[in-house]
Amino acid sequence: MLSGALLCWLLQYGSVQHAAGQVAALFQAAIAVAWAMLLLWLWTRWRGIALFAQGASLLPALWGGALFTVQWACLYLAVDRSALWRVALLFGLMAVLMRAAAQGRWRSRLGFAAGVALLAVWAWATGQGGVGLLTLAAALAFVLGLHQVRCAQMQRQDLMRWRFYQLCVAALLLPLAAVAFSPSWSFLPGWSALGAMLLQAVCGGLAFPFLLAAALPEARNETAGDARITGVVGPDA
């Protein structure tokens, strides 16, 4: 499952670089997230899964969607400026260090600080300081979102519902981010660019979170009482 999630991640951001000459990276993100939202909605309609829970709170859903938007926007900008392997290495190491620091004691936090410092020095020495900051922000948003959702301890229908909330918020925010922060407004999509954005929607928007949820250690300790997001996801009526 973890290898599948990693493959989906690499396919998503590799396709961003493939289509960058035709469509600016942030505009790719805006289109891909809208397509992912539509595909997930169609899937849940076909399967008869209710996406809107009774008593759902708007603020946690907005916070989760904002974190997801920051993660995607920063990673799309990073892979547009640097090699995919460098962004993948920085993002993976930072996410692992942050997750360990959040779950561990002071030694883990000290190791996290030392690791981030070393990665920052490496990024600065290679002239990739901006990419390092973008990747750090993306990793922080990813870990905070993972901690908020506890996605590995959720039932599949609840994870689909929460992912739909994330995609809805991102579909509203990413076009604004593209207009405000995109270094280029290029938008001349050919068939290859459209295919790349569809791949991003399927691999990054849909497949990655579900494969990651199944791969995390907490998935082996799932209990019915843990399969909820407080204030956001509740039992279907």
Protein architecture, described:
- The protein is mostly helical.
- The chain has one domain (2-47, 55-221).
- The chain is 75% helix and 0% strand.
- α2 (25-47) runs antiparallel to α7 (156-181).
- It is globular.
- The relative contact order is 0.23.
- Residues 220-228 have low confidence and may be disordered.
- Keywords: Membrane, Transmembrane, Transmembrane helix.
- The chain crosses the membrane at residues 26-44, 56-78, 84-102, 109-125, 131-152, 164-185, 191-216.
Summary, kept brief:
The protein has 237 residues and is mainly α.
List the helices and strands and how they pair.
Blueprint: H1 2-19, H2 25-47, H3 58-81, H4 84-103, H5 106-125, H6 129-149, H7 156-181, H8 191-215
Keywords: Membrane, Transmembrane, Transmembrane helix
Transmembrane segments: 26-44, 56-78, 84-102, 109-125, 131-152, 164-185, 191-216
The sequence of SSEs as H and E is HHHHHHHH
Q: How many whole angstroms does the radius of gyration measure?
A: 18 Å
Shape: globular
- What would the average pLDDT be, to the nearest integer? 81
N→C terminal distance: 32 Å
Total number of domains:
1
**Quick one: biggest sheet?**
none
User: What structural class do helix, strand and pairing data support?
Assistant: mainly alpha
Query: How many β-strands, per DSSP?
Result: 0
Return residue spans where pLDDT drops below 50 for at least 5 consecutive residues: 220-228
Helical proportion?
A: over 70%
Quote the beta fraction. Answer: under 5%
Work out the helix count: 8
Keywords: Membrane, Transmembrane, Transmembrane helix
Transmembrane segments: 26-44, 56-78, 84-102, 109-125, 131-152, 164-185, 191-216
